[in-house]
């Protein structure tokens, strides 16, 4: 079976939680949510999933436990959560903006607001999902810092700050560079290095040999298409 770009993105998001063990997965958005549920059904069976309120749930939505807010905060402050957030802007060091576009005192566009982004990047593994890779998102400078990037962390706090990966509709990125800036880790099938360069508003670190993002296995495709997203909502978010 041939996978769509959206299905490859689901798997790329799922891979963010590989090896995490028993941590709370906090995916924000459709593709990350499908990825977290796929990871739980396959290679990360110990992941904890929530309904977004106070219940722990299985990938099919069946309630399997109660997660009161006090316990949720204990997981967050103890580093037992891996969140995958969105980003309206993201710079080379992983500084994320979801609050406003333009000057903070007089923005041209109001977005979600800072919300919990600063705390999400404190003592929790953090990843990002960007459904439309463009220079407007991958920008040289964010208009407001919400999620904290690698260049803004005090030396004594570096060990508590863990930016894992960025998944976009073009590829997968990480921070495995000497200055912990963004690096192209893999290209989705059908995407070229030149296209990623053109869609990025700063100079990426690009290895000489960039691998292809892992495509879904036949079993994973069946889960995505028949169990997790039978209505095909994924292909409306990633249209390539």
Helical content stands at 10-25%
Q: How would a crystallographer describe the biggest sheet? A: 6 strands, mixed
User: Which CATH top level class fits?
Assistant: Alpha Beta
In percent, how much strand structure appears in the residues?
Answer: 15-25%
Shape: globular
CATH homologous group name:
Glutaconate Coenzyme A-transferase
- Trace the largest sheet across and list its strands: 1-5-10-11-12-13
Measured distance between first and last alpha carbons: 17 Å
Decide which structural class fits the backbone: alpha/beta
Rounded to an integer, what's the Rg over CA atoms? 17 Å
From the structure above, extract its key features.
single chain, 240 residues, alpha/beta, Glutaconate Coenzyme A-transferase, 3-stranded antiparallel sheet, 24% helix
